[in-house]
Design brief:
Layout (H helix, E strand, L loop, with lengths): L1 E6 L5 H15 L3 E6 L1 H7 L5 E3 L7 E2 L2 E2 L1 H10 L1 H18 L3 E5 L2 H9 L4 E5 L3 H4 L9 H14 L5 E5 L11 E4 L17 E5 L5 H8 L5 E5 L5 E3 L2 E4 L3 H9 L4 E3 L3 H9 L4 E3 L6 H13 L2 E3 L5 H9 L1 H8 L16 H27 L2
Helix pairs in contact: 1-2
Length: 367
Amino acid sequence: MRIIYGVSGEGSGHSSRAKQMASHLLGAGHELLFVSYNRGYAALHPLFPCHEVEGLRIISVDNRVSVLRTIIHTIKKLPAYYRSVQRLRKIFNEFQPDVVISDFEPMTARFAGARNLPLISLDNQHRMRYMDYYSPKHLRMDRWVTEQVIRWIVPNPDVSLATTFLMGPVKNNRTFLFPPILREEVGKVLPSEGAHHLVYVTSQYDSLLASLRSFSNERFIVYGYNKDVISGNLQFKQFSTMGFLEDVAASRSIIATAGFTLMSEGMYLQKPYLALPMHGQFEQQLNAFCLVELGFGRNAQDADPATLQEFFAHLPQYKEALSHYEHGCSNNPSALKNLEICAKLDELLANDAQQLRQFQKARSNAK
């Protein structure tokens, strides 16, 4: 099959997941063309054919979504979005895809709908649209808004392959749930317990650093500030894939934003996790809530010293819970192969995507 694969460039998790799926799809004989932007394009274009577009960005300050800055950035980019649509129309005309896969990338999803092409959503966002799950009452409005955003970004997937920490009942027969997708690099590191805590933030988070400095007896390796320097008990490091994973694997714990990919890798490597969900981003709030439900760490709405102290005090409890995680490296090393979701992709695409086309026809008839 000829597949156009749209990948969100916001954060690194989407492209990490797409790389694993691409390796499987190419190995199965399919032809791929990626479409992405920002971090997604930077990660994918050295390895695969990849077309760059403009994409949606979330602007945050001190771990809080800045709605105003996000809106201003989006307005400034409107002419670039228009040019991207024109270029992408040409790409679709030349490549003539049989199927479109979208990892939360809106342009490819809309082109699939406009051209009546079968569309697969493959991400962790669609669990929030098509899975029944519990979330705290105070997040009810954020949950509703998030569901509408997901619906706007990928309006009509014919099949949704959604990854999740906690399984729940699905709302239709076109949604399939899977454990988190793990990148192959995670299998190249062996977990141990060193002397440091791994800290990762995706934007400047100075209030967290101030709290970390108050624990002079603890050592922290910090990623996300794009510098190599040692300052007291904080060691800042420039990002590198294997260097980062080695520091994760050798850490006592992870202190980071509540992004899905790092949490998945932390769970696999069985590391206690202090989640600092970004304020104003429901998905991260949900990830942190699930972490607590599993007993693998703490949901910290504020990175104050008291919260850190309590997290450190409960590390043995979190480690015990993680030792029983069914997809953890000590219990299920084959989780790295992502066998379940790969098998489902093969099933959907077999025989000229016959099953996928049947789902597409059923969805269209149900309108």
